[in-house]
Fold:
Amino acid sequence: MAKGIWIIAEQRGGTLRKISFELVSEGRRLADQSGQPLAAIVLGHQISEEAKKLAAYGAETLYMADAPELAVYTPEAYTAVLGELIKAHEPDIVLGGANQQGKELAARLAARLETGLAMDCVALRLEGGLLIAKRPLYAGKVYAEVVCETARPQMATCRPNVFSVLEPEVTRKAEVAAVSVTLKPEDLRTKLVEALADQSGKVDLTEATCIVSGGRGMKATENFEILEKLASVIGASVGASRSAVDAGWRPHSDQVGQTGKVVTPNLYIACGISGAIQHLAGMGSSKIIVAVNKDPDAPIFQKADYGIIGDLFEVVPILEEEFKKIMA
Amino acid sequence: MNLLTCIKQVPDTEAQIKIDSGGKGIQTSDIKWVMNPYDEFGVEEALRIKEKTGGKVTVIGVGPQRIVESLRTALAMGADEAIHVDDPAAEGGDALATARILAAAIKQVPFDLIFCGQRAVDDDNAQVGAALAELLQIPLLSVITKVEVSDDKTKVKVQRPVEGATWVLETPLPALITAQKGLNEPRYASLPGIMKAKKKPLATKKLGDLGLSPDQVGEAGSKVKIRALTPPPERKPGKVVEGETVLEKGSVLVKLLREEAKII
Structure:
């Protein structure tokens, strides 16, 4: 019988990413509920010291796949290693991150294992040994509870910023198990030519804890500067509505909504965004929503926790000053 | 080059989504169906590559009769042929079940490069492209914003934005790419294009034509089952921040965020 809860940790450049700690924490909670052991798998090269950090969050076993070919992620090589390991040990549940790398990897891996994968989950629970996964559809216009009854492992990816991280206990230790890595030429067809670092220094919208977003009411590219200034005071990333992106004021990567990024920050400040349904879907699960809009009937106010009816060009600079005062 | 694009029909993103009486599906009576926006980027990119390198663009869709409209749209944009897998047993499948149908259809035609949307904006699954690449045992390039085919047409170089960076990846063909917004601006079908599309070949296939049995696909062949759909969590009613002046409103808001919402 399948046994054990596994999480696929994610590292980039030898450093574990935040999602790895969210995953191991959620894995720990499920392991405690079900009395199953918790293991974390780390793939990379010369990552053993970094990987040991996961023990403090409750991973009892660390499967370490260490090879030069795994230093840089590709879906084929990582799927090959994980596929073999999972077939050999038959864990009951495997969790990954619902970010760019994690979604791709989990999808290919689930197909290799011929099992079911619940993508981009916002809540997980156990019911009689079954993993019940809650995930948004239509960018959050409805939610689905999904389950994989027969195939194993039960797989799910967890949306970043949603699952809380446990307090680490440094006294906890994990057993380290080295994974033998044998890759075939066809696992290594894709090469990373280069990684172009994002020069903006801003946190990606999908991982941001604070977002200031602008819409049609911004009127022009250069006006986003006032949002950038506000954002820098509160450590936010700047996003945009589809209208602002389609007008060419902001890059596609800034778009929040059903055809853009689905975001879950603690604070979302919508400026000059009327609140088209496809935008509301993409930001509706933010913890606190603030709307600034001239039109008191704008649909965005239906979703907002706090609204200011007024001209954003007056309001935003004042917010910047007021935030500066209290952040000082 | 033989370029393939897989398409799906989805409710328009402006659509209100309401749960049906069975509690596991949505009400479809008032829905306007459109080609999944990310699939449009795939169709457009295939057409652009064909215009540069020559070859043929084939579009493939699995679904009920209504999907023919989207296949015809792709033909009107400039695709050469369409394949429609139309079989009631194909309905309601999870990602792997759907990918199995697409893989079976694709194995019957020559291919160098396959496009899928990076996700469909209905179930937001982002799995079919990856599963299809796995079933075909070809390299997978996900969420791509730039594609360059090498002059000798044996390799493809792409850009893949990830959190905080853009990866430039290269892989030999055949390969599968999932298209992201920013890849291109899809063209509109021209009137002559629409006229021509009516005469372009559109093959209809049943599961049996693809060597598949009903229990391998659709709901019967799916591992992931929906137990229930629920509306999104209710947000408690918000408040409009009052004040005599903009300055006062701003200062009240910031205070509320700190003291009431405890977010700053």
